[in-house]
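Following up on my earlier thread - several people asked me to post the actual chain instead of describing it. Fair enough. Here it is, all 227 residues.
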Amino acid sequence: MSNQNIIKVLDKLTANQIAAGEVIETPSSVVKELVENSIDAGSTQIIIKADRGGIDRITVQDNGFGMSKSDLALAFERHATSKISTAKDLDFIYSLGFRGEALPSIASVSKVEATSKTSDSMLGWQLCLEDGVQKSFKEVGCNTGTTIIINDLFYNTPARKKYLKSPLSEMSSITNIVSKLALAFPHISFSLISNGIPVIATPGNDSLIDVIVSLWGLEIEKNLMQI
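Reply from S.P.:
Thanks for posting it. Predicted structure:
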C-alpha cells in the first residue's frame, strides 16, 4: 500500500475558484455582491455599468466611506471583512454581507481593478488583480468612495462561462437585482447603464413611490394604494 497522502490541501487559487462557485454564479451575482458592499459603505449614490450583460465588464462606482491602502489590500483576502470581528458578532449582524468571501471569489475568476479613497486622504489607491493575484498597487487621484471594475468574468474557468445565458438574459437578471435593491433602499440613488444606455435611474430622495415611478412609470403609480 502506498504511503503517499491521498488527502491534499488545495492551493489558494483552486480553493478560491471553488468558493467562487458558491458565491459567484452569474454577472448578476457579481453585481449583487458589489452593490451590497457599496450600500454597507454608507453610499448615497451607486452607479452600475454592464457591458454585454456583464460578461465583458461590470463597473460599480459609489460615494461611500472608501478604503485606506491597508484596507484595500486586505479586502481581497479570504475571510477578511469589516462587518464582524468575533463569533459573538454573528448574533448582531446589521450589514448585507459579512463573510469576506465575495471579493476574493470574484477576483479569482476575473480581472479586477479596484480604486478607493477615504474622505481624509488626498489621494486614493488602485489595486489590480488577475486570477486573484496582485498585478499592481499604486497611488492615484480619485473621488471619495470606491470603484470596482470586473473584466472578462470566468475567462479562466471556461466550463463555467459556457453556462452563462445570452447577454440580453444576463442583463435582465442584473436589472432585476438592481430594481429590488433600489426599492429596498429608496434613500440611495441607483443608476444602471447597459452598453452605454441608461436603464435605471432612481432619485435617491427616500420616496418609495418615486422609486416605483422611476422603475415602472406613472401608470403603475395610478394603480397603487399606500397602506
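The beta strands are 45-51, 57-62, 111-117, 124-130, 133-140, 145-151, 189-194, 197-201. That should answer part of your original question.
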